[in-house]
Amino acid sequence: MPTSGSGVNKPGAAGAASGYGRAAIAGKNKTRLTIADIAREVGVSPSAVSFALNGRPGVSEATRARILQAAERMNWHPHSAARALGGAPAGAVGLVLARPTRTLGAEPFYAQLIYGMQSVLSARSVALLLQVVDDTDAELAVYRRWAGEQRVDGLLIVDPQTKDPRIAAVEGLGVPAIVLGGHGKHGDLPTVWADDREAMLETVRYLAALGHTRIAHVAGTPAFQHTQRRIRALKDAAGQLGLADTQSVPTDFSDGEGAAVTRRLLSQPDAPTAIVYDSDLMAVAGLGVATEMGVRVPAELSIVSFDDSVLTRVVHPKITALSRDTHALGVQVAEALMRIVEEPGTVGDIKAATPRLTVRESTAKPGR
Amino acid sequence: MPTSGSGVNKPGAAGAASGYGRAAIAGKNKTRLTIADIAREVGVSPSAVSFALNGRPGVSEATRARILQAAERMNWHPHSAARALGGAPAGAVGLVLARPTRTLGAEPFYAQLIYGMQSVLSARSVALLLQVVDDTDAELAVYRRWAGEQRVDGLLIVDPQTKDPRIAAVEGLGVPAIVLGGHGKHGDLPTVWADDREAMLETVRYLAALGHTRIAHVAGTPAFQHTQRRIRALKDAAGQLGLADTQSVPTDFSDGEGAAVTRRLLSQPDAPTAIVYDSDLMAVAGLGVATEMGVRVPAELSIVSFDDSVLTRVVHPKITALSRDTHALGVQVAEALMRIVEEPGTVGDIKAATPRLTVRESTAKPGR
DNA sequence: ACGAGCAACTAAAGCGCTAAAGCAGCTGGG
DNA sequence: CCCAGCTGCTTTAGCGCTTTAGTTGCTCGT
User: Fold this and answer.
1) How many C-beta atoms lie closer than 10 Å to residue B6's C-beta?
2) Cα atoms in the Cβ-side hemisphere of radius 13 Å centred on A258
3) pLDDT value of residue B109
4) Rounded distance between C-alpha atoms, residue B23 and residue A346, angstroms
């Protein structure tokens, strides 16, 4: 493949079109049902059928009705490739997640997001192309391939980083795209973002009001813009409220690091009395560690999760969390994406609802 | 749309090809890079380029090299639609999940499965089309549409039910498909299945060996074949081992029902001393309820999850689970799917690894 | 009553690619 | 020395659809 040395059209690969062996091509010989079949059935020309099916002028209402009936009766569907070849959109949008595949899967966030997107996409019969890759380079290669193959009409870029090479690359490809969670530099691509800063401020204010002064933040990957925003917000809040003893510890978002960092924090001489976790999975892992170490939650330790899902509700005590409706976020993102595909240039940055603090059972006045 | 009354080609819809508004079609006027451009560049005919790029005979090695270089230099990618139109495979496989979208997302199973599949699919540059719908009717409609539109080369059917209308429907469509978890009637479609029965038997034997006699099973949806197999296995095991007091309680797999059923079970006069949950999410929810009710795990109640993921490991006590490598299962499924796409008829039923009991901290001799 | 104008259609071209058929120029066996 | 049989290419057709450019056969205004 021209892109990056390995791929579809390797010289030696003996002509595997899109990754299958050659044998596959032989397969289908059962001729498809085409527009011409309908035309024959109804007794008109193929173009008349096309007009009718697409609601375009050029056929009488009577003929149109007969054609539509015939199409329905014969269970005809337009061949997506044929349409796309004529310049029509591909009818699909793409999402690439760049993570080592084994560690993903436990985070409900993307799953929720995708399901939310689906409720918009399904309604419009737009397909979602999903790909999970290892790193950003592979992600870029997928974007280039999809763009070149004209497979997608739009892209969703997630987890924008502080200096994100994907933005410029995708802009260069000319594929409409939405950035999720960017609010800084993200080129000319519109973003759907949430006010992490405000959410963090609210959380810290609440914890401070309860009487906590030693607040720790088990953060995510510092490369992510939203992680940065949260770290900065905590620092600012600490300054405003006069909390001397706050800290943000970066992790890779995994439950393992979440647990390890918690263990470390709780072993310190001046252990924090409250911990804010950047993901619900890490919060649950942290709770597990606390339980295991005999640190009572919330009596001795308050826990807040910066993401909410069933996870925070199935454990005991139920975890206080910054909840946002991820499903609704997915809807919002998908709608923005549809919009930018249909009418490029009409979409600006969109601020999603700010995550709100849902107080459950894991937070209380600092004990002892 | 011909299929079921609502869809792409509604008469009044003014010709929205694949769901976008008409405006979208006007968009792209920047002409694509085509095979002809490469041909011109190199000074050969388009077909020579096609031969070269596909590794077919008909060009000299020297010319082939020049063409490949030019293609790479110009960053050319084949237009997927054009290829597909010529009869080549679509380069995509489809997966439909039929669940109310809001309740999904917390179950790591599908996410893990998908990520596992990706490691096979990505390597072959085969895309995954994902759609989440509400019910089986909608699922069938998606299959019909995808087949009609020639969007996918293969399908993965998950959660086979006792009398599953999808099997016959998909067979009728003539699209290669793999059934995940079927092991009963699933037509002529091959299945990748795990031996739930053996897993359940092993679990019950283990619990019985510990001394448990009152064993409850918080099952999933009875319509699913695998749920049925587990229920039957428990009954059989109870018979063999002389356990009088076992029961299976069906649920909808949600954490809510899992918690509710647990609460009910633990409130009975002769409460079970061990509970087997059909999903890790329900197991965690059950553990939460036990903790909340002051029932000590594992001292007073042993808990086993019939599915394993981070969830079972982040809580405290860590939950004993029937673990299988879902990621590996995804790999296996994707490989089977690729195989059946390439060479239909060569794939038989495949038995995946039997889930093995991973004993952690949530099981012990019945206490008091 | 006659051409302009329109409605309702058909014919044909083209999207980018693959594949079958065609066609030069060479080699080599009888 | 001639032509079968290569190799290495080009030409052409065709995938299923949309779309533009016709082509009928009307109606209508004057």
Assistant:
1) 11
2) 29
3) 86
4) 12
Q: Tell me how far the alpha carbon of residue A218 is from its chain's centroid.
A: 22
Q: Which nucleotide has the shortest C1'-to-CA distance from A34? A: D16
Looking at residue B108, its pLDDT comes to: 80
Please measure the distance between the N-terminal and C-terminal CA atoms of chain B and give it in whole angstroms: 64
- Top pLDDT among B39 and B18 is at B39
Look at residue A93 and tell me whether its pLDDT is greater than 60: yes
Q: How many CA atoms lie within 13 A of B180 on its CB side?
A: 23
Nearest protein residue to nucleotide D8, judged by CA and C1' positions: B59
Tokens of A343: 């009418």
SS3 A288: helix
Mean pLDDT confidence for A176-186: 85
Half-sphere exposure of A183 (CA within 13 A, CB side): 16
Which 3 state secondary structure label does DSSP give B284? helix
Question: Do the chains contact at B15 and A310, CB–CB below 8 Å?
Answer: no
CB contact under 8 A, B88 and A14: no
Q: How far is CA A246 from the centre of its chain?
A: 30
Structure tokens at A251: 């992790």
A86 CB closer than 7 A to any strand D atom: yes
Q: Which residue has the tokens 């894991």?
A: A362
Rounded CA separation A358/A316 (Å):
15
Q: What angle do helix axes B136-149 and B165-173 make, rounded to 10 degrees?
A: 10
Greatest pairwise CA separation for chain B in angstroms? 87
In total, the C-beta contacts within 8 angstroms joining chain A to chain B are 346
pLDDT at B211 over 70: yes
C-alpha torsion angle, residues B80, B83, B84, B85 (rounded to 10)? 120
CA B146, B150, B151, B155 torsion-angle sign: positive
Residues 6+ apart with CB under 8 A from B318: A288, B312, B360, B361, B362
Helix (H) or strand (E) holding B249: strand B247-249
Helix (H, G, I), strand (E, B) or coil at A133: strand
List beta partners, residue A276: A217, A304
Q: Does residue B79 approach strand C to less than 7 Å at its CB?
A: yes
Q: Please name the residues in contact with B183: beta carbons below 8 A apart, sequence gap of 6 or more.
A: B191, B193, B225, B229, B349
Q: How far apart are CA B242 and CA B235, in angstroms?
A: 10
Q: What is the pLDDT of residue A368?
A: 61
Average pLDDT over residues B58-77: 94
Task: Look up the pTM and report it.
Answer: 0.89
* CB A91 under 7 Å to nucleic chain D: no
Task: Count Cβ atoms within 10 A of the Cβ of residue A72 and give its class: 0-12 exposed, 13-18 middle, 19 or more buried.
Answer: middle
Taking the C-alpha atoms of residue B327 and residue B333, their distance in angstroms, rounded to an integer, is 10
Give the model's pLDDT for residue A266: 97
Q: What is the average pLDDT value for chain B, to the nearest integer?
A: 88
Each residue of B303-333: pLDDT tens digit?
Answer: 999 999 888 998 889 999 999 999 999 999 9
Q: Are A13 and B82 in contact (CB under 8 A)?
A: no
Strand order in the sheet with B274-277: B247-249, B215-218, B274-277, B302-305, B320-323, B356-358
Interface touch A53/B129, C-beta < 8 Å: no
Query: Do A244 and A238 form a contact (C-beta atoms < 8 A)?
Result: yes
Local confidence band at A26 (pLDDT 50, 70, 90 cut-offs): very low
Q: Contact B138/A125 with Cβ under 8 angstroms?
A: no
d(CA B63, CA A120): 48
A276 close to A235: Cβ distance less than 8 angstroms: no
* pLDDT at B294 > cutoff 60: yes
Look-up of token digits 């086979």: B160
In angstroms, rounded to a whole number, what is the distance separating the alpha carbons of residues A88 and B301? Answer: 60
- Residue A298: Cβ-neighbour burial (10 angstroms; 0-12, 13-18, 19+): buried
